[in-house]
Design a protein that fits this description.
The structure is a single chain. With 109 residues, the protein is an all-beta fold. Helix content is 0%, strand content 68%. It is built from no helices and eight strands. It has an eight-stranded antiparallel β-barrel. The N and C termini lie close together (9 Å). The relative contact order is 0.26.
């Protein structure tokens, strides 16, 4: 699915209100749980782990302890229809928080 997200709330210097991001999201399963690959320019950018319950998809990502910057990301997708999925993505990094609205649209490729 293709994702368009708009930043609507931030106290982080890395993210300004009005920022937009467009990526490709691929939903899959590994042997234990759902995973979502975020791809930009044919490169894997991030791998979220997740769960689906109560008609919601919850995804999470956290940098490992050796990363220079501590980043946690959580995605709640709770408006799900056949061709579109909507929700929010929250990024927490070094004491600041940015919230994006997320809209996933089925890819035409």
């Amino acid at each position: 699915m293709e994702r368009k997200s708009d930043l609507y709330k931030s106290n982080c210097s890395d993210y300004a209100v009005g920022d937009q991001r467009t990526d490709v999201w691929e939903f899959d399963n590994d042997s234990t749980q759902p995973v979502t690959k975020i791809i930009n320019n044919n490169n894997l950018v991030r791998l979220y782990t997740g769960k689906f319950e109560n008609n919601e998809i919850r995804l999470s990502f956290k940098t490992d302890s050796t990363a220079k910057k501590n980043v946690e990301m959580s995605v709640l997708l709770n408006d799900i229809s056949d061709n579109k999925i909507k929700g929010t993505r929250t990024i927490t990094s070094d004491g600041c928080t940015a919230k994006f609205s997320v809209e996933l649209v089925r890819s035409t490729k």
